[in-house]
Design brief:
Number of strands: 24
Helix content: 10-25%
Strand order of the largest sheet: 1-2-3-12-5-10-15
Shape: elongated
Largest sheet: 7 strands, antiparallel
């Protein structure tokens, strides 16, 4: 009887799991009934003291289908993006500028500490006070072309220590398994009062947000002042500062004298090791506290595929940045002419970084859901399995794509590794009602794999064959 009961309970759980899985699948399928795709631009903007944040409308059916949101930070020199954490993993592409980032991971040691008190601290310290050393978790510096991976719930901040504006494009993977809430992006600030800045902006006549990414107070603002004072061992005046009730600076604030932190120099040797992959595979990067969270994807020398007449393709996945296996995301950077293709296991969020191109996307019905020009700063989402082809203008076309799988795979429609190349000539001839000779040409005329050189029929223009 006991065995029968255990079997019955196991069967019940199995059926329940199947029902839940089926419901989730139906819900996801319902969200991807896309009739038409359009190139998207930011729908809302929040101005801060030292920069601005732009939001794409995540209620748009394309973003709902992919289960993602997209924002873009423009941080001025000496601008600090206040510490916060989100309910989703993040993938950040540094489109312009340089800076440094701190990410606080639970349980990780404070491995950066000052050897002596800084000169600036000495100037502002009273004679009767003793010197204090600072300790914190490690920092990482970044530059143009870097991809930064941030796990869900990891508190982080970003600072522009360069001389030009810093532009960071951020993907939030709302449908990720790490998000146990609904698919609305939520950012939990640890400082400031972004909602007050948003209210002030709306009072000045700025447009209201069309997305669900409304800014909020920081998390301390909901606690009682006395409770905060006791929790941190400080006076109530300091506790009130934590709540940021009168802070109208927005989520990006200016550090007047520059940020003084403990950090090693960003050496050329470190860059060389990163590019050549040295120091990997020794087991250290497999621990969360010492894992690499950054990789540059713009460097031409690290291209995975290169064709001098077509351009280059650089991919970033869980094989060359292992932390991506944990957050289940990947990316690619291209300035190339690609074969017509589809992604077998991921959606792709394409962000144009330069030039212009005609992009065509075809769904399972054989209908073109998108056929239009895409220019710099615009976003197009290609759902999983939708066929895509791009035709660059005379000025070329460059883009970065975020992919919703840590090992996203591409299948091509033409070329040496394409689906047609793997078929017998007889199958092709009968499938398309053409002669065997025509089928042979259709199969073997293109010897390239993924990147195609320009067509001879379109002289003076870079085009996909």
């Amino acid at each position: 009887m006991a065995k029968i009961s255990i079997f019955a309970i196991s069967l019940a759980f199995l059926l329940l799991g199947s029902i839940v899985s089926a419901r989730q699948q139906q819900q996801q399928q319902g969200e991807c009934q896309i009739q038409r795709i359009s190139a998207q631009e930011p729908s809302d903007r929040l101005q801060s003291e030292a920069g601005q944040t732009e939001f794409w409308n995540n209620n748009n059916e394309q973003f709902q289908c992919a289960g993602v949101s997209l924002i873009r930070h423009n941080i001025q020199p000496r601008g600090l993006l206040l510490p916060s954490y989100t309910n989703t993993p993040l993938l950040v592409y540094i489109e312009q500028g340089r800076g440094m980032q701190g990410m606080m991971l639970p349980g990780c040691p404070e491995t950066f500490q000052s050897s002596q008190q800084s000169q600036q601290q000495q100037e502002h310290q009273g004679q009767g006070q003793r010197s204090r050393q600072d300790r914190h978790q490690r920092l990482q510096q970044f530059r143009k072309g870097d991809i930064l991976a941030i796990p869900a719930g990891a508190a982080h901040w970003m600072y522009n220590d360069g001389e030009n504006d810093l532009v960071a494009v951020v993907l939030l993977d709302n449908a990720n398994n790490a998000n146990q809430l609904d698919q609305n992006p939520r950012r939990f600030f640890l400082a400031g009062n972004p909602r007050k800045a948003q209210q002030q902006q709306q009072m000045r006549g700025s447009r209201h947000s069309q997305s669900q990414q409304q800014e909020t107070d920081n998390v301390f603002s909901g606690f009682d002042t006395q409770t905060l004072a006791e929790a941190f061992g400080v006076d109530e005046e300091t506790a009130r500062k934590l709540k940021g009730e009168q802070d109208e600076r927005g989520p990006i604030v200016r550090v007047e004298r520059g940020l003084q932190t403990v950090r090693p120099p960003f050496s050329r040797e470190e860059e060389r090791q990163q590019q050549q992959g040295e120091g990997r595979g020794n087991g250290l990067e497999e621990t969360v506290c010492s894992a690499r969270f950054r990789e540059n994807i713009d460097d031409p020398s690290r291209a995975d595929i290169y064709n001098p007449r077509a351009g280059r393709l650089s991919t970033l996945n869980s094989y060359n940045l292992p932390i991506l296996r944990h957050i289940q995301l990947s990316a690619e950077r291209q300035n190339a002419i690609m074969a017509p293709h589809w992604m077998t296991n991921s959606h792709r969020v394409l962000y144009a970084t330069g030039g212009e191109a005609r992009i065509q996307i075809v769904d399972h019905r054989g209908e073109a859901v998108f056929d239009d020009q895409v220019r710099e700063g615009q976003v197009v989402i290609a759902p999983q399995n939708f066929a895509v082809v791009k035709q660059a203008s005379e000025q070329g076309f460059e883009w970065v794509a975020f992919r919703t799988n840590d090992n996203a795979m591409m299948s091509t429609l033409s070329g040496r590794t394409s689906a047609l190349r793997g078929m017998p000539v007889e199958v092709i001839a009968n499938a398309y009602q053409i002669s065997r000779e025509q089928a042979y040409k259709l199969k073997f005329n293109r010897e390239e794999t993924i990147l195609f050189s320009g067509s001879t029929r379109r002289s003076g223009r870079r085009a996909v064959a």
